[in-house]
Amino acid sequence: MRKNKSVLWGIIAILLCVAVILLNNNQTEETGSGSYKIGIATSTVSQNEDEYRGAEAAIAKYGDLIKHVTYPDNFMQEQETFIAQITGLAADPAVKAIVINQGVPGTVAAIRKVKETRPDMLFLVGEPHEDPPMVEEYADLALIPDNPARGESIPQLAKEMGATKLLHYSFPRHMSLVQLAERRDIMEAECEKLGLEFIFVNAPDPMGEGGVPASQQFILEDVPRQVAKYGKDIAVFSTNCAMQEPLIVASLQTGAIFPEQCCPSPTHGYPGALGLEITEEMKGNFPAIVEAINKEISSRGGDGRFATWPVASGYLQSTACVELAKLAIEKKIDLKDMEAVAKVVEEVTGASMRFSRLSDNGCFYMFLSDSLIFGE
Amino acid sequence: MQEKTAPPTPRLEDRILAVLSRNAVPVFFAVLCLGGIIAARLDINFLVNEVLARLGRNSILVLSLLIPVMAGLGLNFGIVIGAMAGQIALIIITHYRLTGLTGICTAALLAIPFALLFGWLTALVLNKAKGREMVTGMILGFFANGLYQLVFLVLTGTVIPIKDEMLLLSSGIGVRNTVDLINVAGSLDRALDFLWNGLILVNWGPLRLGPWRVPVFTLVLTGLVCAATSFLIRTRLGQQMRAVGQDSRIAEVAGINVDRIRTTAIIISTILASWGQLVFLQNIGTMNTYNSHEQVGMFAIAALLVGGATTRRATIWNALIGVLLFHTLFVVSPLAGQKIFGIPQVGEYFRVFLAYGVIAVALALHAWQSSLRRKTAKQHGEKENSLESRPQD
Q1: Measured CA distances, A77 to A73, A171, A207, A333, B228 (Å)
Q2: Contact B331 A84 (CB under 8 A)
Q3: Does residue A73 share a domain with residue A222?
Q4: In chain A, pLDDT over 70 holds for what percent of residues?
Q5: Same domain, A91 and A111
Q6: Mind listing the pLDDT tens digit for each residue in A75-117?
Q7: What is the predicted ipTM?
Q8: Does A250 map to a domain?
Q9: Domain count within chain A
Q10: Do A3 and B5 touch (CB under 8 A)?
Q11: Strand, helix or coil at A253?
């Protein structure tokens, strides 16, 4: 039996060696060119599409210049795979910059791993989940909606839309994210200032045992309960991407107010909740998408109760980061120059943004856009 | 090549077939890996480097599963709880700013009392749930996760009086979702750097190998754990464990305290798992406070199954080969999926399909093998195999 086993492993080892030699030759031929490439890692479209579609738009624009991979849907548990995807991109010597959107936990670890062997690699991170100061230290640029400022702007918008109460759905894992916890506290304080009642409700974590379906089910069931308890003039908000679609559906049914998604964007939650078909010519054309949503919401009597940003944060993080990476590789921009970065982002999106940064001279940029209320 | 080594007595084809069917699971995965490598046209240097790192990272966690299998407890999903013990130790040393090898060794020592306690509590429950250990262990993991969240999200900063800006959320209550382990990152992998830094880089004409980084000390540690495990099997305790694993009623009659042996097995497994998690996290370099431990059990068990182990029989080789094959597949499958279908996200779905599908396939192949074995046992007369076919509790 022993002998048999050793025979077996011998066969496997020999086969592997053959493969090594064959492929090694292939590999050296492939990487001969002098031009550069930009790697981009995004989520799949399971939770939200914007990041992925942004990467697709970049590929449409630059073609072979972009190398696109996706990270695990279960990124919290499969950190090893996430890191392997990033180091896999870096294994190609032609790749000079890597865009990670969103910067899920493991991003800093992956950056460190890559910089061990490729210290010159540029990292541009969209929507970092890890501690901002830590990300600022390792990434060459980080781009995220200004969450602390949204803590003020969302209650203000909700009040403008006629809300008297603000309901905040979240769960422990998200409340352990520094910026989200901070935003919740700011929101609560702002609500008090504006005379709104702040209500916090714990929803099941979509990364928990029940998964995404359990948390979506909860939202569909809980919004009517809360509306029955507090009345229609309640604004609902959730920190989780997967909850946006049921939140919009439930708000439409019950008449609640929906001021903004977790990741503000016309394409986040709305198309799915309204059953909108995004046609080929609508892809990436935000004015057309907004127009279609507007029509649908009006026809269902939701005028003035729903809002979002005119541009998609996840989408622009992908497209703008690729643009910034390209400029940085070509040494046409200093990523530490906030005004230059803001200019590129505004050019890419065609909308005006307010930029701020985490620390002076740091590369952790936060942006804020004006809202767009549907049906007005 | 096969003709020389295979003994001539039975027919050659039968011989090869027997070998293949006995090792059906690992062979199947090796073929799958090879197919994936060819389909993905993968840079082999990248693959080797990645698999070496993963071998260092995951082996001890997988090895921690062996002893409970031997003691008849099946696959210990409770190692999630051991992983939590390791993380608690890491949080403590991060708070006290202990660095390098001192830090990680302190963490290893600190993890022992936690793992002892958790292991003992786990064993208390598992001894009440004989025959259903695996599902009980899994649910225990979920339950312990709730307690863990309660302690680190709510009690830290309130009941546990810690003030630490680096560790706690800005509100002063609850540990941050990522703990930066830069102080101890790579401290085990690089512990032998003064002898050899583990870097392999070879240039022989057209053949380019490397750069591969070997986690030298981690692999030495893995070797030590292997040696300790095989030593333990030979001691009196190990014999008793095996007796309990074979048939707990007979062991009971023979005067072995079955519950005590089972408790010992679980405690050893929990301590090893806590160390395994330390090794894993010092290699990664950051810790997801609330999620790093969650899938530890699932992936370790999948790797062990892929290595050809069953719920009743698992060897060190099963563990090591399993880590090698399972993680090769994990590296290869997303890239293979991407290359085959040409759409990036299909690569991810393909990987998920493969990674979780393999667990099902492994279990199905084991069932097929054991039914095959039963058939041959019937043909050869049942006396020889009476021990194996005896019902288990």
Answers
A1: 9, 17, 9, 37, 30
A2: yes
A3: no
A4: 91
A5: yes
A6: 877 888 888 889 889 988 899 999 999 899 889 999 998 998 8
A7: 0.79
A8: yes
A9: 2
A10: yes
A11: helix
Number of CB pairs, chain A paired with chain B, less than 8 A apart: 176
Same domain, A59 and A142: yes
A258 with A303, same domain? yes
Assessment of whether the complete model's pTM goes beyond 0.80: yes
- For residue B307, CA distances in Å to B44, B67, B225, B319 come to 22, 16, 18, 6
Rounded to 5 degrees, φ, ψ at B19 are: -60, -45
**Following DSSP, what letter does each residue of B231-294 receive, concatenated?**
HHHHSHHHHHHHHHHH-HHHHHHTT--HHHHHHHHHHHHHHHHHHHHHHHHHHH-EEETTTTTT
One domain, residues A214 and A249? yes
Q: What are phi and psi of A365, to 5 degrees?
A: -100, 140
Strand intervals (E) in chain B: 178-180, 199-204, 207-213, 286-288
- Looking at chain A from residue 186 to 215, which residues have their Cβ under 8 Å from any Cβ of chain B? 207, 209
Q: Tell if the CB–CB gap between A83 and B149 is shorter than 8 Å.
A: no
Residues A200 and A305 in one domain: yes
| A6, part of any domain | no
- How close does chain B come to A112, measured CA to CA in Å? 8
Instruction: Identify the CA nearest to B189 among candidates B207, B223, B213.
Output: B213
Largest pairwise CA distance in chain A: 80
Tell me: pLDDT of B122 over 90. yes
- Residue A2, burial from CB neighbour count under 10 angstroms (0-12, 13-18, 19+): exposed
CA distance B92 to B108: 11
In a shared domain, residues A285 and A354:
no
Strands (E), B152-205: 178-180, 199-204
Rg (CA), chain B: 23
Smallest CA-to-CA distance from B312 within B63, B24, B68, B26 is with B68
Strand order in the sheet with A122-126: A66-70, A37-42, A95-101, A122-126, A141-145, A364-368, A354-357
CATH number at residue A59: 3.40.50.11400
Instruction: Give the gap in angstroms from C-alpha A174 to the nearest C-alpha of chain B.
Output: 8
- In which element (H, E) is residue A124 found? strand A122-126
In a 10 Å sphere around its CB, with 0-12 CB exposed, 13-18 middle and 19+ buried, how is residue A207 labelled? buried
Report pLDDT digits (tens) over A1-47: 555 566 566 666 666 665 555 555 554 444 444 589 999 999 988 77
A282: Cα separation from own chain's centroid:
21
Tokens of B309: 């182990």
Q: Which of B184, B200, B348, B356 to mutate to test the interface with A (most CBs of A within 10 A)?
A: B348
The token duo for B318 is 């099963």
Same domain, A300 and A352: no
Structural Rg of chain A based on CA atoms: 23
Tell which residue, A320, A300, A291, has the closest CA to residue A248: A300
Dist CA B174 CA B155 (whole Å)? 7
Strand partners, A123: A98
Closest Cα partner for A37 from A122, A100, A112, A135? Answer: A122
Residue type, B239: Q
A23 inside domain:
no
Residue B151 tokens, joined: 């302690």
DSSP A9-68: HHHHHHHHHHHHHHHHHHHHHHTT----EEEEEE--TTT-SHHHHHHHHHHHHHGGGEEE
> Would you say B325 and B34 are in contact if contact means Cβ atoms under 8 Å apart?
no
Structural domain of A207: 147-309
Nearest to B334 by CA among B324, B322, B346: B346
In Å, what is the CA distance from B310 to each residue of A327, B314, B365, B368? 55, 6, 10, 12
Tell me if residue B88 falls in helix, strand or coil: helix
**CATH number reported for the structural domain that contains residue A217 in this entry:** 3.40.50.11390
Tell me which chain B residue has its CA closest to the CA of residue A113. Answer: B284
> Which of A270, A287, A309 is the last residue in one of the domains?
A309
